[in-house]
């Protein structure tokens, strides 16, 4: 993935501060343990829930049971946002906007399953079967890939807001 150019929003940034570098944002996405996914319910209400995710090959990946609310929401409205960061006045908060697309290629899923174990440990070991993750207890999980259309980085040391634009982004 080519590093996208970041555009500092001076309205929400301390004077004379530079934009956050993409390398810092990517490191935050790779290292974050918890993300919050926001999706749209059928009645138009937002649904927000925590989950784990893996940054791999230029996208965030997460899994969920096929009957869970977020899976049903994303089936109807694939646009979503994944958020991670801290609940303190330090660090970097990141919001990834994109479209959640089911990942069903067994080869890609096998590679991603290994990434889950590397990041989260043995409790998150999945096998791959018929285009989805399977767990030891027989549970099946749909895997979603979210390629960013926009990434917002909110630095709190110093305060800056940086927008990274990717392909196919809708106008702001």
From TrEMBL:
It comes from Nakamurella alba. Keywords: Oxidoreductase. GO terms for cellular component: cytosol. It comes from the Bacteria. Gene3D superfamilies: Electron Transport, Fmn-binding Protein, Chain A. InterPro entries: F420H2_bilvrd_red/Heme_oxyg, Pyridox_Oxase_N, Split_barrel_FMN-bd. GO terms for molecular function: coenzyme F420 binding; oxidoreductase activity, acting on the CH-CH group of donors. Signal peptide: none annotated. This is Pyridoxamine 5'-phosphate oxidase family protein. PANTHER family: HEME OXYGENASE HI_0854-RELATED, PYRIDOXAMINE 5'-PHOSPHATE OXIDASE-RELATED FMN-BINDING. Residues 24-151 form the Pyridoxamine 5'-phosphate oxidase N-terminal domain.
């Amino acid at each position: 993935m080519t590093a996208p150019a970041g555009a500092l929003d001076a309205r929400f940034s301390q004077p004379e501060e530079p934009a956050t570098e993409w390398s810092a944002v990517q490191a935050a996405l790779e290292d974050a343990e918890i993300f919050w996914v926001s999706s749209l319910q059928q009645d138009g209400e937002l649904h927000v829930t925590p989950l784990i995710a893996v940054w791999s090959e230029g996208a965030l990946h997460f899994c969920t049971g096929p009957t869970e609310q977020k899976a049903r929401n994303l089936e109807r409205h694939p646009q979503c946002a994944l958020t991670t960061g801290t609940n303190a006045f330090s660090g970097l908060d990141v919001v990834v906007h994109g479209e959640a697309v089911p990942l069903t290629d067994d080869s890609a899923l096998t590679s991603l399953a290994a990434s889950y174990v590397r990041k989260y440990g043995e409790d998150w070991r999945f096998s791959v079967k018929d285009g989805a993750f399977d767990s030891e207890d027989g549970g099946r999980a749909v895997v979603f890939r979210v390629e960013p259309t926009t990434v917002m980085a909110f630095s709190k040391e110093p305060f800056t807001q940086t927008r990274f634009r990717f392909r196919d982004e809708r106008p702001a």
